[in-house]
Write a structure and sequence with these properties.
Shape: globular
Helix content: over 70%
Distance between the termini: 36 Å
Oligomer: single chain
Number of helices: 4
Radius of gyration: 15 Å
Number of strands: 0
Strand content: under 5%
Structural class: mainly alpha
Length: 88
């Protein structure tokens, strides 16, 4: 059978959907803490050890992480990545 090829729009929608799903999952007050623990490694890779741990620590605090992620939905990341880019 021929493999189904996905268009660029579909790939971008899928990748963007995953980023949005991670942000929404982190915003759940107490279940979000478990999600943050699972995603701490990706934060450390993107932001460095100190900034990644600080970002994950803030996200893990139930209502503080909710407020931080709500702001980040509109402004992008508050703590910059290692390469200096803001955003997803």
């Amino acid at each position: 059978m021929a493999a189904k090829k996905h268009g660029i729009k579909r790939k971008l929608l899928h990748a963007g959907g995953w980023q949005a799903a991670k942000r929404v999952a982190k915003m759940v007050p107490f279940g979000g803490t478990a999600i943050v623990v699972v995603l701490v490694g990706s934060d450390i890779r993107r932001k460095g050890v100190v900034n990644g741990l600080v970002n994950s620590g803030i996200d893990a605090i139930p209502f503080v992480g909710l407020a931080k992620n709500a702001v980040e939905l509109f402004t992008g990341d508050l703590i910059r990545d290692k390469n200096g880019k803001r955003g997803n």
